Amino acid sequence: MDTSKSTPQARPTVGVVRETNDGERRVALVPKVVTTLIGKGLEVIVEPGAGLGALIPDELYKEAGATIGDPWSADLVVKVAPPSDAEIAKLKSGSTLIGFLAPRNADNKIAALKAAGVQALAVEAIPRISRAQVMDALSSQANVAGYKAVVVAASESTRYFPMLTTAAGTVKPATVLVLGVGVAGLQALATAKRLGGRTTGYDVRPEVADQVRSVGAQWLDLGIDAAGEGGYARELTDDERAQQQQALENAIKGFDVVITTALVPGRPAPRLVTAAAVEGMKPGSVVVDLAGETGGNCELTEPGQTVVKHGVTICSPLNLPATMPEHASELYSKNLQAVIELMLDDNGALAPDFGDEILAAACVTREEASA
């Protein structure tokens, strides 16, 4: 009789690292999602203190079933910010990394990851299709940024947002213009509306006008159509840019608050708010520029700083989602959960099918043997 025993197959390991970038308080996986992944047969290793920025102590990860230890040798490592060279050196060859990798940026770490033998999936590259909505980390984090941008604007404003009728008289509502109405812009419009502001949205993609109106805002029509691929705007021609800037310059002067969210992937942020437009705004007005990390939409923006120019406060906060780490981490964690589950086969093994359009688009480095 054969008394030999089969060796149980090792469970795939997922490593959750502690973010080291200045100001980054998010964590890639929260305990609730850790419990779900463990229930699917994965082992989760969490770096000590990984969740402290998001107010999640190690003890909660232990209660969720995770091990507190070294996550860098895991089969799959998840993080938020792009890895540093020192972090890439900690990854084992043949492992997989998932996170924001800034693949379109000139200073990305794609070559270094490839040289280290690491298979990498960039969450920014996940296609914006219906099936991938739950994995869309760009959208989940942009929602946070759009909300917080309005909170920043209200805090810096010298005026009320809502209309108030008091014994001393009636205060008119603040007028709020949002430039760029993707996910962040729509959330900004909705939040400003909830605070009582009179809201208007503008985008070079006229097909989003109905979305602007759906959150109770007016549509600013400048007669320019720059719809591009993948839900993004294309770069404007020189003539279109000049036409847009002049029309915007005239319009901006009539608003109390301007929030800008316009981005073009892989390129510097388009300049939408000129110095002349700022100079024409009423003293005490506010500009919140969410495009500071790629140069800013406002000509007078100083990325990462709050400055006053011509009596107008110009704020350019960087990485706003990290300032709301609890909910931002929860949302991002659900995005990653969906990506990881897509990578599992029927037996619970990590076996990504790169014939799947989502994984194929997200994968920015890949072992030749897997090709």
What key attributes describe this structure?
Rossmann fold, 30% helix, alpha/beta, 2 domains, seven-stranded mixed β-sheet, 371 residues
Q: Report the radius of gyration as a whole number of Å.
A: 23 Å
Whole-number count of domains: 2
Uncertain stretches of 5 or more adjacent residues: none
The percent range for helix content is: 25-40%
Oligomer: single chain
Classify the secondary structure makeup into a structural class.
alpha/beta
Question: Judging by the overall fold, what is the CATH architecture of the largest domain?
Answer: 3-Layer(aba) Sandwich
What's the SSE pattern?
EHEHEEHEHEHEEEHEHEHEHEEEHHE
Spatial ordering of strands, largest sheet: 3-2-1-4-5-6-16
The CATH superfamily of the largest domain is known as NAD(P)-binding Rossmann-like Domain
Overall geometric form: elongated
The count of helical stretches stands at 11
Distance between the termini: 43 Å
Taking the sheet with the most strands, its summary is: 7 strands, mixed
EC number: 7.1.1.1
Domain Alanine dehydrogenase/pyridine nucleotide transhydrogenase NAD(H)-binding: 154-316
Protein name: proton-translocating NAD(P)(+) transhydrogenase
Keywords: NAD, NADP, Nucleotide-binding, Translocase
